[in-house]
């Protein structure tokens, strides 16, 4: 609690009302101007002193209140004095570093040489640049999008990791993922133009985008309009920041915005760098050609030996094929290609995701197609999904149409889950009783399989045949 002389009775008993925060005189009850006494009251509280000096190290040395510029210091405690803050930042921008060898630091030095750094950094992170309308974090994201040619969609969580590793971002991938989601939101009140595409649940206007899905479940990529706003031809004209030898996002410094940046000079520097790079590449190419010329005769001898070996191997293979045909190789192959299980993809109304899932399956199914026949079971009349499924010759298509009204036993039950369960039962009944499969592998229309998918379930089928107590085998990875 600080004590100050009262402006009316001049007694040194002005105290602060703890409950209401008012500055009143103990004797006459007159309220004082809190702006005049607020800062001095705070420093009295910190140092526990009623005197005219602020003690820094307890030995009486320090800075006098008369020497300390309260008007300047109060600027940093105010929230509405924008002009004063701006003037202070401009005046003190050139004297912003303390001597770290000094053991005693004046309050005015701390305010003018340390607090100023925080204020300027905070403004740079919080206020978009007049040059491109972006904050540094958004500029890093856009820079990495152009660097990666981010035209194919990827999960936000994966893209945030790429940005963090290629733009020297120091504040955590979670914050970065939130910024990426914010740049992709396109509902009213979010962005004038969303530079990234929102492929998934990116929130809505009712909750201001806070109801967006986790970064592991939503996808994004560059919007088509982004490269029209930031042309590729301008990339070579920009000055790029450099951190630890790594080129990161372009800079929108004050010098660049005021005309101190010379595009011709930058272009000339880039051309010079390209010439040096071409010279290095040419020297390396000449060296490689000389090495290849020196060992050309050795490669020629090896090639002749390889041709002779190939001829021998070809004759052996022909003899082996003739022997297999004579012994009934077709019967052996047919016996090996016994049906293991049917693969059924449960689809509804997402044709884009269904195409990606089908391509992922066909990529690894070709060699074992007869072991794992592929079925698509669609729930509902969506024509895009039906057209997409029928466009593949390797697929058997099934369609479940149930327009009946769902009657639930208890009110409040989720009808959607009842519909899904009904579709699953209908599809499995058809595979088990109509197509006579003993095993079925169930996939949803937004999954991608791994290269060892079929080896895994073929081994699982063998295990289920040996142990009849095993009813089902699951393989699931929900970590992106």
UniProtKB/TrEMBL annotation:
Source taxon at top rank: Eukaryota
Cofactor(s) recorded in Swiss-Prot or TrEMBL: Mg(2+); Mn(2+)
> What InterPro entries does the database record attribute to this sequence?
DNA_Topoisomerase_II, Glyco_trans_13, Nucleotide-diphossugar_trans, Topo_IIA-like_dom_sf, Topo_IIA_A/C_ab, Topo_IIA_B_C, Topo_IIA_dom_A, TopoII_euk
Keywords linked to the UniProt accession: ATP-binding, DNA-binding, Glycosyltransferase, Golgi apparatus, Isomerase, Manganese, Membrane, Metal-binding, Nucleotide-binding, Signal-anchor, Topoisomerase, Transferase, Transmembrane, Transmembrane helix
Q: Membrane spanning segments where?
A: 274-293
Q: What membrane topology does this protein have?
A: Single-pass type II membrane protein
Domain Topo IIA-type catalytic, chain residue ranges per copy: 127-251
- Protein's pathway: Protein modification; protein glycosylation
Similarity section: Belongs to the glycosyltransferase 13 family.
The role this protein plays is: Initiates complex N-linked carbohydrate formation. Essential for the conversion of high-mannose to hybrid and complex N-glycans.
Name used for this protein in its record: Alpha-1,3-mannosyl-glycoprotein 2-beta-N-acetylglucosaminyltransferase
Tell me the organism: Kingdonia uniflora
> Taxonomic lineage of this organism?
Eukaryota, Viridiplantae, Streptophyta, Embryophyta, Tracheophyta
